[in-house]
Amino acid sequence: MRITVLTGAGISAESGIRTFRATDGLWEEHRIEDVATPEGFRRDPALVHRFYNQRRADAARARPNAAHRALARLAQRHELTLVTQNVDDLHERGGSAEVIHMHGSLLGALCAGCGHRWPAALVMRPPDPCPACGKALARPDIVWFGEIPYHMERIWKAVESAELFAAIGTSGLVYPAAGLAQHARRNGAHTIELNLAASAVSRDFAERRLGAATEVVPQWVDALCP
């Protein structure tokens, strides 16, 4: 079976990665505009680097949970395209060989000048030079607000060809990810939401299973992989 899975912050929450909700305009006591926009980076790159250095350290301490491991098992039995909004590497450490990071990764660095990419150091600083152009414009390789998510053409194709589309631990607040279920359904896929609570786009799913990801995801995978 061709399956496309989209995961969000809820799948990593039980591993100790704090979820992000924009309802109050703050992200771990910081204004979103200050730490998650290109403009914020230009204003205060030191603040942005401190913020993501902490996120990188938090992710390094976290461990994959049963939901991450279950999806790795699903890929062994079905044709799975795994797309994540998360910037941690818990899917990979949980055994998934191929993961599409639509919002980038904490493990990557990006030159804001020439666009060169390279593996990020655990601690990044404003003076860090780009290995390609030498300019001190290194930033985390993260898709910030106002920027276009990565790999969208590949993601749309996977959604269009899926027989089954599942969204796990997503809020349904951020587009274009929030529109994938509707697109999958229009193209004939069965759609299912696995979440702690119904998302903002819950109506786009034909089926939903509510509960902790470490419980509902392994149960769902067990049913697909008898």
Automatic annotation (TrEMBL):
EC category name: transferase
Cofactor list: Zn(2+)
Binding site for substrate: 52, 55
Active site residues of this protein: 103 (proton acceptor)
Pfam family, one: SIR2
Keywords recorded for this protein, A-Z: Cytoplasm, Metal-binding, NAD, Transferase, Zinc
Record-linked SUPFAM superfamilies: DHS-like NAD/FAD-binding domain (SSF52467)
Cellular component, GO annotation: cytoplasm
Domain Deacetylase sirtuin-type, residue spans: 1-226
Family named by the database record: Belongs to the sirtuin family. Class III subfamily.
Biological role: NAD-dependent lysine deacetylase and desuccinylase that specifically removes acetyl and succinyl groups on target proteins. Modulates the activities of several proteins which are inactive in their acylated form.
Listed name of the protein: NAD-dependent protein deacylase
Naturally occurring in which organism (per UniProt): Paracoccus pantotrophus
